[in-house]
Amino acid sequence: MKKPVLLSGHPELLVSLLENEREIALVYDRSVSPFAERISGLAPRGSVKACMAVDAREEDKTLESAADICRRLLDEGVSREGLLIGIGGGVTTDLAGFAAAIYKRGIRFAAVPTTLLGQVDAAIGGKNGVNLDGYKNAIGTFCFPEFTLLCPEAREGLPERELRCGLAEMLKTFLIADAPAYHRAVQDGWDQSLVEKAAGIKASIVAEDPFDNGHRKVLNLGHSFGHAIEKCSGGNIPHGEAVSMGIIMAARLSEAAGVTALPLAKTLAADFSSAGLPTDCPFAPGELAPCMKADKKRSGDTLDFVLLEAPGKPVLLPLSIEKALELL
User: Fold this and answer.
1) Class for the domain spanning 160-187+210-327
2) What backbone phi and psi angles, to 5 degrees, belong to 14?
């Protein structure tokens, strides 16, 4: 697979990419309507067949929401030659990508993420899904975007908490692939160059293993625990914060399983705390177990836990869920 196309800069970069498009549909987070209107205005006259606003909440990322998008595409006569552009955070691009994958057996998809989390992670890898009975992305597809635009302007006005959630995913990426960038982000703070670096790392890993059969699994650092934390919280702990806690749990497991001789959990917890990220899981291991057993990546009773020998050196270790939680 070719490396996903990443663009960095102003929305006007899209003019040349869209100039030959005749059927464009937009799915956008209602809260970024002015930005979506700007994107719509860059398309050729008459090419935008549908503009659909969605409420970007995890509880609304459902099969019915995806079906509503498909109904609108049908109503507007969008053909298999159409391009569906998702504009918003991870919920929106997930939902748009999923709808693109299933509408008429698949139309083309592009992403304009408007959150830091979306720009460094959610809108790049081609995994799209909807939730089922509270379980995150339990139903999903692969639909690789034609391009992903990393626009700094799109992040303007984001709440500090939302930026920190994106930072958690950025630090995760650097922990598995670029220790110097991790230390730079912790010590000096993040900037657009680090956004682009994190996005580029993920794009390279995805190109190497597009369907998540091998090395791509390292991108799940902190997620086996994190998704369970999200579920147990009833949605009150957002994804980035849950991943932050999950990474510290993975560091503790790395020590307990003998993968690392470093005081990894203490070091990473100090780093994450200094960045304003939570590090302590509020749930006991026994509370997390049922949610972890519903993990879509589980094989039998075993999960491939992503652990760390050191920053930049990930290790995949198959363990039963019971054993992993016992070691914690």
Assistant:
1) mainly alpha
2) -75, -15
